[in-house]
Design a protein that fits this description.
Layout lengths: L2 H13 L2 H13 L5 H14 L4 H8 L5 H10 L7 H9 L5 H12 L9 H11 L5 H10 L5 H10 L13 H11 L5 H16 L5 H19 L6 H10 L6 H10 L5 H10 L4 H18 L6 H9 L5
Helix pairs in contact: 1-4, 2-3, 3-5, 4-5, 5-7, 6-7, 7-9, 8-9, 11-13, 12-13, 13-15, 14-15, 14-16, 15-17, 16-17
């Protein structure tokens, strides 16, 4: 039975339970509300409905409903452990509305680490590399790839420069920090990502000394700007920064990691902590940021990463 046939059958079943049917209809209708808060509340409630709402959400995604309603229907499917959502999201990637395609990328993102094959990886990679797509959609796809090991997606990242026309000031670190101070809240995420990669390139080209340190601080400021926008597109650079850290990094790196870092950041942070025996401030802040990551991700003692860290670096987390 297809998703649309299930939607028809589901409506017949729900007709026998008018209370349930009425509530689901109300939530689906709320996805078209003018008030964004009302739409978001409906999305949250529909996620609780789970698989029961899938046929109805699928029908809404495929309909001619307003774009916010279709995007909301896709958002309600995020995290649903039903592989049919993959095909729904893949089809929605062709939608003319950017909000709908961004919601489709978000659904597919959740499958990157769960799928048995490479179907989702292939479509997300193709989206990131498609220069005909809107920069926001390409960046969302690139951001989604941060769920995977850095070495796997590094070639894609190198081939997917995204030019939105809004470029950060990269002539010197002070100019970049000034640009970030003015534009961090409104600049395209691609421009903030360019600030991270541009600062890193300058930093690596400088000998050890004050100028290199200034570029490091500017790169940290760019990381914080991305973190405050909720983007994980540069988590790979945070991870690598802790991995390479022979000296304490500016506090912005810790703040960004606490806000958007994932469990893949914990081991590099633990290594930095273990090597910094004469830096109590740095060690303490590493532990605090790691604890923030653990709390935000709700990792428990059964988590494989935590088990490994506690065996290898007791006292860190």
């Amino acid at each position: 039975m297809g998703v649309r046939q299930e939607a028809s059958a589901g409506r017949r079943r729900l007709a026998a339970r008018p209370g349930k049917a009425g509530e689901l209809d109300r939530l689906l209708a709320a996805l078209s509300a003018a008030d964004a808060t009302q739409r978001e509340a409906a999305v949250a409630r529909l996620r609780v409905e789970g698989a029961r709402a899938l046929p109805h959400l699928a029908a809404l995604v495929a309909s001619k409903a307003p774009a916010p309603a279709r995007a909301g229907a896709l958002s309600a499917l995020e995290g649903l452990d039903d592989p049919r959502t993959i095909d729904l999201a893949r089809t929605a990637l062709s939608d003319a509305d950017i909000g709908v395609t961004l919601a489709a990328v978000a659904v597919l993102r959740g499958w990157l680490t769960r799928e048995a094959g490479t179907q989702v990886l292939d479509v997300i990679t193709a989206t990131a590399l498609d220069k005909g797509r809107d920069a926001a959609v390409r960046l969302a796809a690139l951001d989604a790839l941060s769920e995977l090991p850095a070495e796997l997606v590094a070639p894609v990242r190198e081939r997917a420069p995204i030019d939105t026309g809004a470029q950060p000031a990269l002539e010197d670190p002070a100019a970049l920090r000034a640009w970030l101070s003015e534009h961090a809240a409104s600049a395209p995420l691609s421009a903030l990502h360019a600030a991270v990669s541009g600062a890193r390139e300058h930093e690596q080209g400088e000998p050890a000394g004050r100028r290199r340190d200034e570029w490091t601080r500017a790169r940290g400021a760019a990381h914080v700007a991305l973190a405050h926008r909720g983007s994980r597109v540069a988590v790979y650079d945070l991870r690598e920064s802790f991995d390479r850290a022979h000296d304490p990094l500016p506090g912005d790196f810790l703040a960004a990691a606490a806000r958007v870092g994932d469990d893949s950041c914990l081991e590099p942070m633990a290594r930095a902590w273990a090597e910094a025996r004469n830096e109590p401030w740095w060690r303490s802040r590493l532990m605090e940021s790691a604890a923030d990551i653990v709390a935000r991700l709700k990792l428990t003692g059964r988590n494989a990463t935590l088990k490994r860290l506690r065996n290898k670096w007791p006292g860190f987390v």
